[in-house]
């Protein structure tokens, strides 16, 4: 009975969406695509071109280049909000923080619980780690890493743990908190740390593999936010 109700509800939703589209067509609005169908946007002078997955495109002639940049930035922002927070459609208007995170494999400000859950999904192997911006202090990037502590009570026994290390971000570069290890870029600092044997408390380990943000798959509910052209 519940399955039949679910099918009936879905059928009604599909019918409503179809009617909404027909209504928009009758009112002179033409739907271009859903946000998840967009691959990238291109800005040339005052023209914005929006490309779809099927290689079809929509060109919009704006009144000025600044207006074109503003419109492209709006589309870019909505795409990250709706489809994929770790992707940009046009580098010209993408926030510098988003570009930096993609290039370095760094997550945004996520909590420790979410970070450890992602590490479990990635295999939970010793030495895999996640880079993430601090939720409380935006001058710090946190490394959350999987490591094992050897317990000798009742015989040798390895206990999996998740350790957090802070990277301080300032005008001089990136510094492992509490040390003199400073590098001009995050990439250079990580390359240095991955060659070192790190230790804290009774735990000794190496950084082996970074788990960057993964592109989000297509939305299952396909939010009905679309581009429309008035003709």
UniProtKB/TrEMBL annotation:
Q: Does the keyword Kinase apply?
A: yes
Keyword Transferase carried by entry: yes
Q: Which UniProt keywords apply?
A: Kinase, Transferase
Can you provide one Gene Ontology molecular function annotated for this UniProt record?
kinase activity
Q: Name all FERM domain ranges.
A: 1-86
Instruction: Using the UniProt annotation, give all residue ranges assigned to the region (Disordered).
Output: 1-21
Q: Name one Pfam family in it.
A: SH2_1
Query: Do you know which PANTHER family this protein is assigned to?
Result: TYROSINE-PROTEIN KINASE HOPSCOTCH (PTHR45807), TYROSINE-PROTEIN KINASE JAK1 (PTHR45807:SF5)
Give the protein's recorded name.
Answer: Tyrosine-protein kinase jak1
Name of encoding gene: JAK1_2
